[in-house]
Write the structure tokens for this entry.
Amino acid sequence: MSLKKLTKASILALALLSASFSYAIDEAPVQDNFISIESPRADAVSQNVVSANLEKVASAAKELLGTRYSFGGTNPESGFDCSGFVRYVFKEANIELPRSSYDMKKIGTPVDVKSLKIGDLLFFKINTSHVGIYIGNGKFIHSPTTGRSVTIESLADAVYGKRLLSARRIVTAE
């Protein structure tokens, strides 16, 4: 992670507030009147926070296994539709998503299916559009359809594997 576009005054304030500040203002690279500081330690901390959030997403999703499907549903009490489920689970990890799967397809970054990570959103061509959350090991969790409940499925399953349209990564360390 890099701290970008901090003014010299901001850096000085940070230096005064933190005894562990290890960069002298005069030594930091200046570009366009801003100081840029690269910190390998900050990268590691950022990665840990991202991993913790994604684990929280997967954990929150699994806690809802068995919750019934409900068209337009957005909570465990009344049930979930696919996008209501995904939005609820991410919100539990303090990550806001749009309400519809259509709008969810517009955010984040595209991901190749061979590079999926826990927490990636998977979009399927089922009815008009369907979304689930990748939870690792070739599996995803979703709220499928009327008469069913939140469940875990395999991407190797013929129904889902052949209908997978795209994947998006919402949370990154950048």
Observations:
- Residues 1-49 have pLDDT under 50 and may be disordered.
